[in-house]
């Protein structure tokens, strides 16, 4: 039995990893994938019952587009319950590939939910999942030496502990403790604590979270905490799938709310989600003219290592209260929301001209309205947001399933330069959806099971100045990708991406003018499976950078991944060997790296040298798993690695990671 | 203001409009005329005429919104005879002080069911007030090969003999262009076209466009081209023998250029 269970777990993880790797390509560089893994692992264990599901549940599956979800429900409405999962193929927009990815996460039989909620069951039937992780950079970074002035006060180890409790899908609880490298154990053992208790499907109360939670509504202009998808090779990802209220389970120290929120069904299809949050944020503050503390920005890193960082910790109080009301049926959903955020101290503008329109004061009221509507084979979506006494921002778009093999996406966005929201994650070229107008058009073509093409073009303008851009600017981005999968064991991917933007010239001139900055990326990737145990991936990626009339820069990365995952083995692992050579930071290359479960990173390959890592998982006992990961960068022709407090003497930077998982 | 246009034109050597208007349908698809059939193929790869079944005439008007005065007007007519096709086109671009016009004759022949070759002869005239006018002559050649119901490939060379205007007062060249392209019917409603083209003095341009026949009456179109980066969008209304197509180009530097065409197929 134990033998079989191990194999099953290994296979579960393999399926989830495949999905993650395919979405990893679409993710922004800083995306925290923890929650995604959580959700998928859970569905792998307890598949979604397609005959009992709702749009919100399907939205949690990253690889389904909003149009597919909407088509799914209109199909059920017309044809009644599904008799066979393969019936999915006859739904508009469900190509064979999507169905294949979807199958491991869905079922048609009821999984036997325990609806009986009592204390005995909570302990007897609840599932617990405890993960402890330790990581450390093995070389000494200069911040840890006895420097005069600024230095890291804590120890170089990183610790993270996460505990999850699930009682079916009706009660969950979570606790996350985190200490970053360089943070001190003062008074309490961890620097960051996050936790919550959540109840689901409790009569009229659909969801209730006490503790840390996230809110995602509409297209992310007004209220979206946590991370959001943006432009990617899957062109449908520009239409955001909002999940409303969710318990927060990530270790990111900024993007969540802390307090309580609930989604209550008011009447038929109308839900109300009131929320309230009290937090202390990090901010570096100075005295303003009247002698009060004031700040211009909030620090989002969550790092508290140096005396300054510790001083800034929790310096700014934030209070939020508001509500969302949403009407949803199969074709149409409309929502309205409003909230006020109040800060302990005033925000003031910086002296820089580009910052002239940023938020000032200590109270901000945001109002927003959003919709999505499915008409035949077109899914329309949009949101408009208004920050009271300042700007307006809106985005509108459509996903069109032109034919079963072609789908198109179009969006137009317009965000005023003085639009303010602290929870703004709408589709944008800049990190924040302000001061931008843009038109995006994309196309996915899947002529057959073996081929897939994606293209998109995005044109954007910034009517006001930006950091390092001393004039209104414009630019565009184009991506094209082809994936060829002739068999289950072989896959080739080709990708080309080009981006043209404007930035201040590097020349010494009295008044900065803008130079065109051109970045291009070329990727060839091959995946092949030797047998059931061995899997290989090779990638070559080249990057090009050219600014103004300066010479073009050319960088590249080559790697070989070897993946060992036999069905019935206690040990599985992955190795990468990479060589990279980029003339400067401008032509740096990012690549997804395999990591211990629930940890996730994009490696940044910058400079010249080698990268290798080994990631092993070992099943210690039936419910006890251990991971060990060793990763190293060896740079050529350098005396030091990193800069300032992270500087290391020598040419090597290596990291070791250990993780233990106990499920009981 | 007008004097500036004239100065601009007089001071720098330049090409006349590298691309003839291809009508709103092909324009909305990212100016993808190499492997797509349309009555406006007369102005591009005339091998595309081989798919026409009836005598067709179309008239086109383009406003270039960077100026109040500049516009393009064009008219084309095509007459099919079994395996041979004859077309004629006239195009005028400019404003009162400056204008480029072109008369073209196209002849296309179909070889079997799959291959067609087309030939264009163009007579160009350029007139600038106070400079007088100049004329030139050019020949284009194009071919289209229909692989199967779904795939069509095309190739086109414009002015391969590098003909110039006769006048030596203004340095104006008739551009030499090369393009190859493919189009793909993803379904009977969806046509995707792409092409790679090069004007001799410029960098390679790649374009991609989609035509989506939503209903029999209405088609939606969109496209983009890379160098320079331009976006295109348009729609077409199809009622019995009449077609009305509208499109606009958006160029970051030149702004919008909306256009309309009315087509009648006899």
What are the key terms here?
heterodimer, A: mainly beta, Porin, 24-stranded antiparallel beta barrel, two-stranded parallel ribbon, 11% helix, globular, B: 266 residues, mainly beta, 6% helix
What can you tell me about this protein's structure?
The complex is a heterodimer of chains A (664) and B (266). Chain A has helices spanning 2-24, 34-45, 55-59, 66-79, 96-102, 119-124, 307-312; strands at 48-49, 106-107, 127-137, 157-167, 171-179, 192-202, 205-216, 244-247, 257-267, 270-281, 286-287, 293-295, 316-328, 332-347, 361-375, 378-387, 392-403, 406-415, 436-448, 451-462, 473-487, 490-504, 514-529, 534-547, 553-564, 571-581, 589-593, 601-605, 608-621, 624-635, 640-641, 648-649, 652-663. By secondary structure, chain A is mainly beta. Chain A has a 24-stranded antiparallel barrel. In chain A, strands 1-2 form a two-stranded parallel sheet. In chain A, helix 1 crosses helix 2 (34-45). Chain A is globular and about 70 Å long. Chain A starts with a helix and ends with a strand. Mean pLDDT of chain B is 85; it is low at 6-14. In chain B, the strands form 2 sheets. Chain B has a 14-stranded antiparallel β-barrel. Chain B has 2 helices and 16 strands. The N and C termini of chain B lie far apart (44 Å). Chain A binds chain B through residues 400, 402-406, 408, 410, 439, 441, 443, 445, 447, 455, 457, 459, 461, 474, 476, 478, 498, 500, and chain B through 184, 186-187, 189-190, 192, 208, 210, 212, 222, 224, 226, 229, 231, 250, 252.
Brief summary:
The complex is a heterodimer of chains A (664) and B (266). Chain A has helices spanning 2-24, 34-45, 55-59, 66-79, 96-102, 119-124, 307-312; strands at 48-49, 106-107, 127-137, 157-167, 171-179, 192-202, 205-216, 244-247, 257-267, 270-281, 286-287, 293-295, 316-328, 332-347, 361-375, 378-387, 392-403, 406-415, 436-448, 451-462, 473-487, 490-504, 514-529, 534-547, 553-564, 571-581, 589-593, 601-605, 608-621, 624-635, 640-641, 648-649, 652-663.
